[in-house]
Amino acid sequence: MNSSSSNQSEFDYLFKLLLIGDSGVGKSSLLLSFTSNTFEDLSPTIGVDFKVKIVTVGGKKLKLAIWDTAGQERFRTLTSSYYRGAQGVIMVYDVTRRDTFTNLSDIWAKEIDLYSTNQDCIKMLVGNKVDKESERVVTKKEGIEFARKYGCLFLECSAKTRVNVEQCFEELVLKILDTPSLLAEGSAGTKKNIFNQKPPQADASAGSCC
Amino acid sequence: MEYYFQTNCAAKSSEWTDELHELQLMFGVKEFMVIAPATASGVVLDVPEASKLLSSVAIALSNCGSIWPAFVPVHDPTREAFFGIQNMGTIFTRRFDADRIRSQVPIKLMHLEGLHQLFLSKFGLYATDFSTNFLKVKFLMRLTYITPPFDGEDDAQVREHEVSQSPGKKDIQTYIKTIWDDDYPWSNWYSAEDPLKGFELTAIWSEHTVDDSLEMEELENASVFEAEKWLLSPVLELNMTDDPMGHFIGFSSQLRLLVKALDASFEVKFIEDLITDGNPASVPSPSVLDRVLKGLFHDGQIPDRQHDHGIGGTIKGAPLGSLFAQFCLNALWFGNCNIHAIAVLWIEFVREVRWCWEESQPLPRTMTNGRIDLSSCLIHQKLQMLAICIGKKGVKRDVNGNSSVSDVDKDPPIMTEDMHEERLQAVEAFGDEFSFSALLEREILSSDMSAFKAANPDAVFEDFIRWHSPGDWESVENEERSSASESVRMKGDWPPRGRLSARMSDHGNSWRKIWDESPSLPASEQKPLLDPIREGEKILHYLETLRPCMLVEQMISSAFKASLDTLSQTSYGDLKQMKLKIEQLYKTISTSLKPLRGNIVADRAELIGDLVRLCAVFEHVEKLLIFAASIRHKLADATRLCEAIFSDFYNYYLPKMGTGSSNICYDKVFKSKQLIKAHEREVIISLFPHPTANQSWRKVLSMGNLLNGHEPLTREIIFLAHDGATDDQYGRNVPRGSPGEVCTHRMYVCGTSNDLQVALSVTSWD
């Protein structure tokens, strides 16, 4: 429990984020685009991948631990454990493939309900590959409607052109910073003394901003 | 000499309004004044002295133009006797007189007829030639009934009980009291006093004219259904709601003891220390211990479903009905939950668990579905893991099994929270330096590939991808053959035409690399991902060496959760406020217990203080729930009334619930009076079952106005006599604005067969 206590001063909060969605929608590319500003064709993720990025949002220095999961069915039971303690979950679909969108409600939203241990956890819907506008089959309106129904944030982006990539993570993090119970957990991650903090308001709700 | 004012200026439309002061009700006055001596008795014992005092007060009041009535208490205080006088302008004077008989009421005065005659006789005192036809006598009545003690079972059973017990030996009331909550979920653990002792039914006959005394006799036999208005008010058991210093025994009281145990547990390093230097007197006898363990391990059925309340799932505790949750609930009541008793129970508990492990017996009350419930506490996770290990230990490996694709699927790795934690920490430690891809998943992929190769000796990488990651296979026949492709493929059009996705066919693709490196090996011959013997022993080691504070911490979470889960199974109908309170409590518990998820406690005093406050909040909700259950049980057929009374109680109780501290003084008295609608009367009548033969011989019924054979608790009557002669010589002196009639006589009678209170107001022309 006391490991890595030496880097206490490096950041104010540590948040755990999770990327989920069908195989091939571009989760790993999105993460790579965010963490190292590059885009390349990646091998399909095996199980899970993990990246860390330190960002400054709202004057706070944040350490983001982002878990990138494999979309293949075989890995789904394995990745279930990564939902634990995540303050934010990003559901990614490919705007040029309808099945990746319908699977969100059929599979992925249910996975969150099933495995997330954090009831206030912020959900974000991201439609990727908007650079392929000509091949688009899922409209922006459909995305907005889904987000409203499931109470999540929503953005469309392109990991390739980096359009809206930063914003995806920034909006999610801002919402987490806005949620007292998540904030309390995030600061617990810094191994500060969490017991002196007053428990957050019992009725603090995640809600939706859509 | 001391005097005070009491006013009630609001105009009253009814004679029976609840807010009326006693004197207002007795004498039909509004504002009034009482002059009472500041002595111990508070009354003027001497009658002439009282009269003298009253006259001087009357003069003083008339001199200053006051028309307020003045009263002087006289005689013995128990008689509640008053003299009073009121100047009403220049013409009228009203005199008041009240007295009370506390025993041996004359039979005549027990009946309406006699009381009516008493009223008429009062006219004679004032030398006027009133004849009854000159007067209109009006009559109002209020009857208050109290329900007989409730029986939890139906009548037949109670009667049966009465027969089996020789009559009179056991008080039926006590019998009834002990069983009211038998069917409620908490009764497995404790028995609560019924917070609702009964109901008071008030039946009101509004004003009507009475011609003679015979009519009064008829009124005495009139059915309560003839009353214009029915009102119902609950009678509470005050110990329940106004419990100044924790006499209530329930989950909350035991949780408080568990918190105390937590505080003590920080001092101790090993569970065993609590046994050797413990206080043996605080630990129940071995026979009790045996019974508890038997109940836990041998009578246990696996819970059909984990009773996870939607919100309850956020409390990090074992699910209700599971082995550890049952352990916690038992511990609450075992030796009053002191730390030594907990230690004894735990050591025996772990011993039983080890027995199951050694003997490969399934762990009772432990459901896994092949996965670990990470939202529960660690001990529950460990027990789940152990149950899985016991299951795997017993399974013999079938080496010559027929392999096919379906055999490739192996169980996902099963890990408890601490194993995940270890892994995540390892990953995080490497995360910054390497491009990390989880080793465990890589191992699983490789094992899948080996098994696939063994099952399909001629398979190539593409075949594996089509099965394992169908999204990475781009079929060229897709557009041409549509849905037929599946069956065609089965018939032998093999291999299917198509290609791997770009990312899967990249040079240096990691999947291909693993494929090339994986040997052909059936799943059954591969080294299992989980070694059940090793993992099982690790779990027992954990349980056997658990530090006391780590144990009690997890017990706290599980006990709070299981207690509330148990309580929330109570059926209380559709009482929304109750539902809301329970949901709020789940949230409060969930947030308050978060600090327990670590094992470092920085400010112990603050933590314990918070938990004690949480127990107080729990207690309020627990009591409210018991009230809800009780009222719902009694008024199940009158939903509207049930909800209205609960709502009144809720609003009365809410301010007390707000604060966690119990020593604030509240002097507000609970009042709830609900007007009963016509269709609800039948339900209310059913609260007054006919007394059984045994009950009825005990009472001598003498008053009349029976309701299903029950006498009223009190019968209040008001007689009014109006002077109807508007054209008499005094008529012109009637002050302007008053009605043509003057109420000359008013008599208030409140009584039972052995207590009679009479108050008389007489207006006279002086």
UniProtKB/TrEMBL annotation, chain A:
PROSITE patterns: RAB, RAS, RHO. Transmembrane segments: none annotated. It is a lipid-anchor. It comes from the Eukaryota. Keywords: Cell membrane, GTP-binding, Lipoprotein, Membrane, Nucleotide-binding, Protein transport, Transport. One of its GO terms (biological process) is protein transport. It is found in: Cell membrane. InterPro entries: P-loop_NTPase (IPR027417), Rab (IPR050227), Small_GTP-bd (IPR005225), Small_GTPase (IPR001806). GO terms for molecular function: GTP binding; GTPase activity. Pfam families: Ras. Belongs to the small GTPase superfamily. Rab family. Intracellular vesicle trafficking and protein transport. This is Uncharacterized protein.
Automatic annotation (TrEMBL), chain B:
GO terms for cellular component: cytoplasm. Keywords: Cytoplasm, GTPase activation. Residues 409-544 form the Rab3GAP catalytic subunit conserved domain. Residues 475-504 are annotated as: Disordered. It comes from the Eukaryota. Its main location: cytoplasm. Residues 478-496 have a biased composition (Basic and acidic residues). It is found in: Cytoplasm. Belongs to the Rab3-GAP catalytic subunit family. This is Rab3 GTPase-activating protein catalytic subunit. It comes from Spirodela intermedia.
